[in-house]
Design goal:
This is Cupin domain-containing protein. The protein is mainly beta and 108 residues long. Helices cover 0% and strands 56% of the residues. The chain has one domain: Jelly Rolls (Sandwich), CATH 2.60.120.
Length: 108
Amino acid sequence: MEIVKIDQIPVTRSPRGPKVRQVLSHQSVAINEVILEPNEELPPHTTPVDVFFYVRSGSGKVSIGDEEQEVVAGDVIFSPKDIPHGLKSTEGRFSVLVVKTPNPAYGE
């Protein structure tokens, strides 16, 4: 059994700008926490695998393709592979678990 204490994982900076935590990395899945402060964003980008976003805390906007929606803590959002997606904090701190499946670091 593997138990991850997310809040005990050190926070680093992503090459795209926001704070991140690498929560879990296995061949079948990669999970990172993206932490956005007010008015910060993770710019739109594509991934070669499907992505799920789980809003851990706060509220903000998720963009997928041409769509953009307000989301709040507890929401789960699906983004298909090869479609641009991004995150924006609108007010307070916005924390999102980003789940990539399969893990793109292992190739397909």
